User: What shape does this take?
Amino acid sequence: MVELRNVSVTYSNGVDALHDVSLRINDGEFAFVVGESGAGKSTLIKLLLKEITPTSGRITVNGFNLEKLKKSKAHKLRRTIGFVFQDFKLINTMNVYDNVAFVLRSIDAPIKYIRNRVPYVISLVGLKDRAKSYPTELSGGEQQRVALARALVNDPQLIIADEPTGNLDPKTSLEIVELLKGINECGTTVMMVTHEHELVRHFGGRTITIKDGRITFDDYIG
Amino acid sequence: MKLSSMNYLFGQGMKNIWTNRIMSVASFCILSVSLLLIGFTMLFVANINRFVSGVENKNEVVIFLDDDVDSVMASAMENTIRNIHNVESVTFYSKDEALEDMKKSMESDNADQLFSYVGEENPLPDAFRIRIADIEEISPTLMDINRLDGIDSIKSPTDFINILTGLKRFIGIVSAVILLALILVSLVIISNAARASVDIRKREIAIMKLVGATNTFIKVPFFVEGMFLGALAGIFASAVTCIGYSELIKVLSQDMTIWSIMSVNGFIPMSEFVVRLVIGYAAAGMIISAFGTVMSTRKYLKV
Ligand SMILES: Nc1ncnc2c1ncn2[C@@H]1O[C@H](COP(=O)(O)OP(=O)(O)OP(=O)(O)O)[C@@H](O)[C@H]1O
Ligand SMILES: [Mg+2]
Assistant: This one.
């Protein structure tokens, strides 16, 4: 669950990125967050990952009160969240398997669990045959699938996707969102940031619009 | 942390060395040069100190006795001197022994002839040879000895010792400053070199942070990398130092002036420090390198 109450963010350069934002996304929901460039969408995501702290307001993510959570304990929060970014954020010197396994290794998971879990999620995103490939050998869509597998491997309560289709063609974009929908149907909360209205209209559902740092629309469409 | 994770992280550290091999070679070279500078500075200072203490040890106070001091008086004096503060040992050095030593030291064809003039009459005085425990505190001890009766004259190396002690202190301070500066400079250079190799992986670090890796987990491979390069540089520097030092001694010993100065005590033989050298180098290399590397990851771990 994600809850923001009267959250504002002012960057040190004086930019008011978010202004009095209140928002609640319940467990198991799928929500699109839309808005123009510079509206404050990525700022919202950085808040949820505790990369930045709000100037004012309260935030709760997966039961963590971010105000009380120490920066040095932020990894506990992050282990409950899977993320997908527009630029995939894969490690090019690691193959697909290691890119995914790396998450579990980073959190000190048992080796046996890693050996079972990693091939499972890789096949879940349809890349069973590409486990030994390196990111540079994959298409954008395939790379984003790897990123999805990586987000999933940890069995997170929440997946945050920041413009996951930003670098993909329309057909591949549909496939990725469909994968996200599938993951959501298995019970994971998904929050997907996008500025592709086409995509939102195609899938419908809860849509939150941010404009100039404020929420201007929050309802179900389609 | 689990053993399997430690294994994995260790492997990552080793892999990093190979992946960033140019940076690794650069770090290795910088470390080796730093270690060599530190090592040779220390050896230089140690040799000077050895020379100084060699000279100091040679120095003893000799007191020559009046002619009218008989053996009873002499042994009384010996006891008194032995109880003076800072006196390590007293030995009676009779005029007969002195004459013998003199003859020996002048072993030449003329010596016998020369001494034949002396005949039965030994012109040398009886004496005490006194070793001083702390040479730097010699002045008050000399004053105490001076108060005794029956002393003809005292031969002491006070001036020379004052100079040497001053020199030793000076070298001690200067070398400490130089060593400290060298260590600091190496740390700065190494942490900068390491920063470059950390920069290459800042993306990786950022991703690790996002997926919830702890700072420790992120630091360990860098630490392993630093330690390994440090140990390698330590071994390399040890080899260079051993070969360089023995060659240097060979060359220096051919120079008569240097040889005659150092022959008081000789150069420090390598066997005396080789074990400490290898351990010291490896430890210093590992500490400087690991510390420098870990320091340079800090700015990326704040996220
Ligand atoms: N680190 C930062 N320091 C200062 N200002 C920032 C920082 N990050 C973002 N901003 C500013 O905050 C505002 C919101 O930025 P944000 O990245 O949240 O927008 P966005 O909605 O994600 O845009 P886009 O769709 O282009 O990704 C912008 O005006 C941006 O310039
Ligand atoms: Mg953005």
Notes: Residues 148 and 294 of chain B are 66 Å apart (CA to CA). Chain B touches chain A at residues 1-2, 4-5, 8, 19, 203-204, 206-215, 217, 302-303 (CB under 8 Å). The mean pLDDT of chain B is 81. The beta strands of chain B are 61-65, 87-93, 127-132, 151-155.
